[in-house]
Amino acid sequence: MKRSYYEDIEFFSSKVVLFWFCVLVAFIIIYPYILPNYYVYMANYMAINIIVAVGLNLLVGYTGQISLGHSGFFAIGAYATTFLMLKINAPFLLALLIGASIAALFGFIIGIPSLKLEGPYLSIATLGFGLTITTVLGRLEFLGGRQGLHTPELIMFGWHVDTDREFFYLLMAITFLLVIGARNIVKTRVGRAFMAIRDEDIAAQCMGINLTLYKTMAFATSAFYTGIAGGLYAFVLRFIEPEMFGLMMSILFLGMVVVGGLGSIFGSIAGAIIFSWLDLQLRNILNIPYIGPFLSELSRSYFSITGVPNIQFIIYGLIIVLIMVFEPLGIFGFWIRTKKYWKTWPF
Amino acid sequence: MENFLQLIINGIAAGGYYGLIALAMVLIYRTSEVVNFAQGEIALITAYFTYMLLDQLNVAFWQAVPIAIVFAFFVGAMIEFCALRRAKDPNVLSLIIITIGIEMILMGLVSWKFGADPKTMSFPISPYDSVTFGKFYIRGLELLALIVLLVVFLSTYLFLSHSKLGTAMRATQQNLVIARVMGIRTKRIMMLTWGISGAIGALAALLIAPTTMQPYMMWDPMLKGFAGAVLGGMTSMGGALVGSFIVGIIENLFGGYVSIEFKSAVAFFIIVLSLFIRPSGLFARHYVKKV
Questions:
Q1: How far away is chain A from the Cα of B135, in angstroms, using its nearest Cα?
Q2: Count of structural domains, chain A
Q3: Total of domains in chain B
Q4: Terminal CA-CA length for chain A
Q5: CB–CB of A316 and B280 under 8 A?
Q6: Per residue in A193-210, pLDDT tens?
Q7: 3-class SS of residue A160
Q8: Which backbone phi and psi does A159 adopt, to 5 degrees?
């Protein structure tokens, strides 16, 4: 039972939360030492998707504005960070922040139409933005054009970050900061304004919420998160090209948020982890025991063996459809129901 | 000047394909406010189904096309019946996301079955045939697409305005609850709408397939068709048609005079600009929400 406002925004609301938080931190610290390098790479990939999913959830889940153009912000973050480091030798963190700020500026600009548009009209505007960014990046010669860019060596305050393991700690620190930041946004005035806009924008306006400010702010914040994730992604892959940031990427980002649960930070984290795990697993689906041989047999007799990588789209699609049909709140909804079930157990 | 007119003709020709998709999307949007992102993929799977009938099972062309249209109708209706109708407490966002999921499933299935390499579908009109009149020319397939679009548009219009079923569909579009109170089986009407729109969209794919046929072939027409429908206002069929032609003309003019690579980007940019001026599209009445 919460009695005061400060109890609501308190970070460690109970000893149990504090305990699990400490366990999580300890687990993250020892993670690279107990698991092989591939899993560290996987965790890096997950962390980046977590940042995007949390940022996108601020927009889609909390403010209720659809976006099909987040791969555009992601690309802007990745290109701006790499470009600043390559051409003017900016320090990594500064380049990352500037890159994310440029993404946020674009987010602000895309947010302006959202004051007037909704539903399909907004989705076509954001979709157009995402497609345009990819085309433009492919044409700019100083950004490598279609060949793409290789990221420079990552040196931070004399610390040469060149293995996945070292990058893991850097990435985890940034992810932690951003997730906690998002949680604080959601729990305080700004987040409540976002939710009021989602529930009914006219009512929110009547309560004194500045729609112009908060809608554009939602877009800018979301774009900032995505921009940071993009900048980090460039250093996970060490190579970026315009073709990577297509419409499919935006759709997968949206899928993560939806599967995790709209309007829940915990849900976005879960959704991002599941989707990135699936993504990495399904890339070599034929090597999975039992399922792999069966699928290759099936492909040989009824489908085609060259098309096997496309099975991942079927699986993503099935997950999205099933989650939306049976549990619109996603994984977060399952979590709430399980919790309720145990709380009221014999009844 | 000749070049200019030729580019406009090319634009209108491209608009024929977009118009079919736009018409299909508008039909669904009017009944349920859902943007059907799976529209292109329903069409895609129908095109590959027709390819299978024609080139692997050797069915005659005049038999294959009706079978394909029935197939598209069936796919569209099944999507409504199996997925959208079952959704737990549906809202517009979750329904849109379901269609995105279905789009991924259908595209995955097609590219799993047929691989990514391009195919050629046999078609009575070769993609290289063109009709010339005076100094201008139009490709035979595109002319056929325009004729099909016109026929489909008129017949849908007459169906909606003059038949009993069409009246029931319009009633469902205007007010679902009251239509149900009046004894219309709204769920069945929804399914029918999805089926019809699936079939209309599939016509576009059948006409595109002779030129290019690979699993990504419907992305571009679908996005352009969607853009055209949005430009026309998403609720008016005539508007969707005009919107699609505008999209086609803009992108061809830009592609012809400035740069071919940016032509899609510019089409989208102009749509966003025009939405900024008329937020509900060119031909729809803008409803300002009132308390």
A1: 34
A2: 1
A3: 1
A4: 21
A5: no
A6: 999 988 888 888 888 888
A7: strand
A8: -95, 115
